Amino acid sequence: MQWEHVNHRRLVELKVPREINTVLAFEGDAAVEDLSFRRVLVGRLSVRQIAALMHEHGDLLLERNIRRFLGPNNRVNHDMLTTLATRGGAPLLL
Predict the structure, then answer these.
(1) How many angstroms separate the Cα of 14 from the Cα of each of 9, 38, 58, 68?
(2) In sequence order, what are the residues at sequence separation of 6 or more whose Cβ sits closer than 8 angstroms to the Cβ of residue 8?
(3) Distance of CA 75 to the CA centre of its chain
(4) DSSP label at 74?
(5) Of 81, 18, 21, nearest to 53 (Cα)?
(6) pTM over cut 0.85
(7) Disulfide check for 61: which of 42, 52, 57, 70 has CB 3.0–4.6 Å away?
(8) pLDDT tens-place values along the chain, 94 residues long
């Protein structure tokens, strides 16, 4: 274990949200709606594109995602992980 002194400036630096600036190539139709003063886009990305984003950005990509918050023991997340890990289901996703 190692201890590091952190002052208030460093704490603020750690709390500042980091951004991902990238271009997404959606497939098929997309829907755009204005909900509660926010613009929402629903579209479809290929699994290959998501894999490339994960490779490039790692955990930062999921930092504010509800799936991460719910964790792997959530029923839906568990089923998604099982589908991705199942060799027979992988070709359907790629």
Answers:
(1) 9, 26, 17, 19
(2) none
(3) 18
(4) S
(5) 21
(6) no
(7) 57
(8) 888 888 888 777 777 667 888 998 999 988 888 888 888 888 998 888 988 998 998 878 877 777 777 887 888 888 877 877 776 655 555 5
Query: Which among 30, 16, 24 is positioned nearest to 56, based on CA atoms?
Result: 24
Copy the structure tokens of residue 33: 């709606």
Most distant pair of Cα atoms in the chain: their distance: 51
Query: What is the amino acid identity at position 13?
Result: E
The torsion of the CA quartet 60, 66, 68, 71, rounded to 10 degrees, works out to 170
